[in-house]
Amino acid sequence: MSLRGVMRKPSEWSLTDKDLAELRAWAEGREDRSVRLRIVQDAAAGLSVSQSARAIGISRPTVTAWRQRYAAHGLAGLEHRPRSGRPARIDEADVIAATLAGPPPPQRTWSARALADHLGLSHTALGRVWQRWQIRPGSSDTTVVLPVGPALTCHRPELLAVGARPDGRAFVVLAEAVPSGQPRMGAATAEERQMRYAALTAVMRQALPDGTEEDRRTTAEGSDFAQPAGSSGSVRALPVVPALAVSPLIAGRWAGRRIHVITWGDTRGPANLPANATHHAAPASMGWAATVCLMAQLELQHQPQRARVALDLLADTARSLAKAPPGTPFWWLREGQGEGVPRRRTVHRAFDQLALGSFNEKLVIESVRVAGSLSRVEIAERTGLTPQAVSRITRNLLTTGFLVEDERRWTGKGKPRVPLKLRPDAAFAIGIHVDPEQITHVLVDLCGNVRDRRCLPVTPDSDPRSCLEWMAETTRQSVDAAGPLGTKLLGVGVAAPGPLDVHEGVLLNPPLWSKWGEFPLRAELHRMLELPTILEKDATAATIGEQWLGAGESSTDFVYLYLGAGAGSGAFLNGDVYRGASGNAGEFGELTAYALQRLTPEGGPEMVPECAPMSAVVARAVEAGLSSPDGEITYEAVCAAAADGDERAVRAIRDVAVIVARGAVAMTDLYDIDLMIVGGPAVPPEVAELYLSEISTAVNRFPMARRVRTVRVTYSTLSASAAAVGAAAGVFHMAFAPRLRTHSGTAS
Predict the structure, then answer these.
(1) pLDDT confidence of residue 113
(2) Which residues lie within the region annotated Disordered (predicted)?
(3) Of 134, 266, 423, 606, which is most buried, counting CB atoms within 10 Å of its CB?
């Protein structure tokens, strides 16, 4: 007797031959259905729920649920039905990418239940995905085993090329990264990993929207993954490469490397791949866009510097293609980096023979810092110093403890090279960010690791003396907690909103902080601590931090766009920070006003409300009708709503970003830079892509020199902590950046 339509006791269950045949045919070749088949067979055999659960190795509620569903609905009841609000299909690559991106601070790694709730999955389903991909959350080993055919183990993958078409054909080309001395600094922060995961996921999914059936047929014609013939002239110049042009590039750049090609649909991937390429077929549970984002996360783990450049270009390609006509295939090929690619270097000249000893030591430290680790031969090549000079300088730096030897590297000829790297505990610095909402205090080591972090919430009415006492006492506590390492403290860097008198170390009536007036912050803090103390404008400090520890560390020219309660900027030009005559360089609000023709009756620039991004976003969101139960809308609430897809919140942020971007255009033309870093408290990871996409579009569309210069817009690796960490980096910069005295006695 069939079980359908009526609930029965275990002793009453029975299956006809027809029922058995239907069940076996339904479960044949489907491992995920075998457990449900076994549950029904156990019921028909008279086993109790407990007996069946023990025999199969699952929970009793699971056995009960599947018995009830089969009894009520037959085979239809055994089909998987996701719970309300959960996706019908799990993109396993997306799950793993989210796992590696990590949770919001202060939590460091995802627990299974927390990530399952975040993704809207069941805890059991998430556990199975982790098991299939051999993921161990919290482990220092970031190796991932892709369940492709054949399986692919990825430890240090480098994304080489990606392509996709609306008809479902797609590929990803990757290889194990070439060992080149793993960088020890500039590691991706939690904020950066989350931002890049969210941003890249969004743009990759939008880059190739489903076209019509006619679009699909048109795209499918011709050679595999060739750009469609007769593309419309209205399509803007995209960094896409036809198949015939890919082959020689692949042959030249990837020769001798073990290439892996993951394919989706009926495709061979790029034409004429190297003979050593291994093809892997992706399962239906693994999406193309999510796989690209997963490779991005893995790259950020092991080679952050190179990954940032490549992923920014990949995101720009995706943004451009999202605006192209339906049916346009997606193409991205990694540009040559590293081997054989000349780097721009600042050429230093000796003006004062007495300064050369110190200068050359700093030049060696700077070279090692930027590269992460270098052998003595590589140091000589990069600095232009003689091998004898390099040997003497590195011997001194090893003796004093600034450098330490890394693992030996074989180059195939002669003795193995011994790379040298900075020793993190060789020096420390204190960084303090004085902000109208919060004072942030950090203890940072020479490699940029934050050893101690403390915060003090403040208001516009907070007394400056009490704030100063907290800074001094917190500094003493941090130094005491560091133990013997506290003796290696170089000094204290303070970042504060402008305007400042940097020469006198005085805050000049900072906005939103009426009680501070003209406060001699540097002198007072130096008196209390008896430590070297420097004062920088917050945007300038953030710029130094990005050059020393973050996204700008290998660049000699870039602009940092710092967005918080206000909007400011800092510039790193010709290998050094640019402060201006008074230390107040970077105020670009007036540039924005002129770009938008917002002028006073006298012809001067008006105040642009959008140059206070946080308050402007909140005001626009409220005007659009966004509300909260308690009646108060905060910037954090607007960002959370935008992350959840609320169109009012998204539009409020985009509108402000468009205005800020016009000021960024003026700075691009003014400084002629090709790198712009965006960060600050107003740019949390969940909405960073909204700012970056608008700014990137503007600085590559409106500047006069746009035909000869592409501006890369990237996210700050220090993000909300940029000013505090940058203030500490300013101490390192003053101590170790190579400078020479001119005959007038000033630094060059």
Answers:
(1) 81
(2) 207-234
(3) 423
